[in-house]
Amino acid sequence: MASADHPVALLTGTNRGSGRSIARELHARGYRIFSLNRTLTGEEWLHEERCDLADPEQIRGGVARVLATAGRLNVCVSNAVDRVLDPIADMRWEDWDRSLAVNLSANFHLTQAVLPALRSGDGLIVFMGSHAATRYFEGGAAYSAAKAALSAFVETLLMEERNNGVRACLVSPGAIANLDGDVDPHKMTTHAVAKAVVSIIADFPRDLLVGEMEIRPAALPERPVTGIDRLLHV
Fold first, then answer.
1. Which Pfam families does this UniProt record tie to the protein (predicted)?
2. What is the separation of C-alpha 91 from the centre of its chain, rounded to a whole number of angstroms?
3. Which of 220, 155, 160 is nearest to 184 (CA)?
């Protein structure tokens, strides 16, 4: 059980999926957990602040309330996403704008809000990226564009803030069984993803900086096409 003397972690999107698993794993390691969630679970241990990440004012207000309660911050995990998987020709502009607001711009606003506290606490901020940043697919324009830009953002943040005592890391996962009831053996479980993320936070030496961690499912649904045979599938 975490106490007031234990390290503090702020996460976005802890109401389900990977975010919830990461929060649970950190909590088990003794971290005090605070959350920015659009949909609240009502579970006391998550210390939730209602926050729509598409609204910069809600992000900054939520972070301010967390810091006022916690008094400090050691770790921030930017996890929440909003997926729009429509073809470009059919996508509503409102959905495009919201996707970039949540999946990209929210990371900027969250980072600015937490940086002073992380600088004071020799802190770490972990951003959840995606294979979609480099592996494009039909219907993924908004999601892939945001995740590709996020990669550039995190690398720039790392260069700017490492001498201020702030470490930044991008975790780029492949397919995750994020939805309730998803037991596809060709996807990573949220528990496995949480173990990988928390290893960066809690297990690695403080003088070692992990700039990016790429993780993927161990099992493939079918034998991959390799070598010259790829020419048959273009």
1. adh_short
2. 24
3. 220
Contact call for residues 32 and 9 (beta carbons, < 8 A): yes
Q: DSSP character for 150?
A: H
CA torsion, points 175, 181, 183, 189, in degrees to nearest 10?
50
Which one, of 164, 61, 76, 163, lies nearest residue 128 by Cα? 76
Closest alpha carbon to 10 in 55, 59, 83, 81 = 59
Polymer length in residues for the chain: 234
Which sign does the torsion angle of CA 29, 112, 214, 49 carry? positive
> What is the per-residue pLDDT across 97-137, written as a single tens digit (0 to 9) for each?
999 999 999 999 999 999 999 999 889 999 999 999 999 99
Q: What are the CA-CA distances from residue 162 to residues 9, 119, 121, 156, 158 (Å)? A: 19, 9, 13, 10, 6
Distances from the Cα of 20 to the Cα of 96, 116, 122, 136, angstroms: 26, 26, 24, 27
Domains and their CATH numbers in the chain:
8-233 (3.40.50.720)
Q: Is 28:81 a contact under the CB 8 Å cutoff? A: no
Calpha distance 226→190 (Å, rounded): 29
For residue 66, the surrounding DSSP H or E stretch is helix 56-70
154 Cβ partners below 8 Å, 6+ apart? 107, 127, 129, 168, 169, 170, 212
- What pLDDT, in 10s, does the model give residues 44-76? 999 999 999 999 999 999 999 999 999 999 999
Contact 7, 30 (CB under 8 A): yes
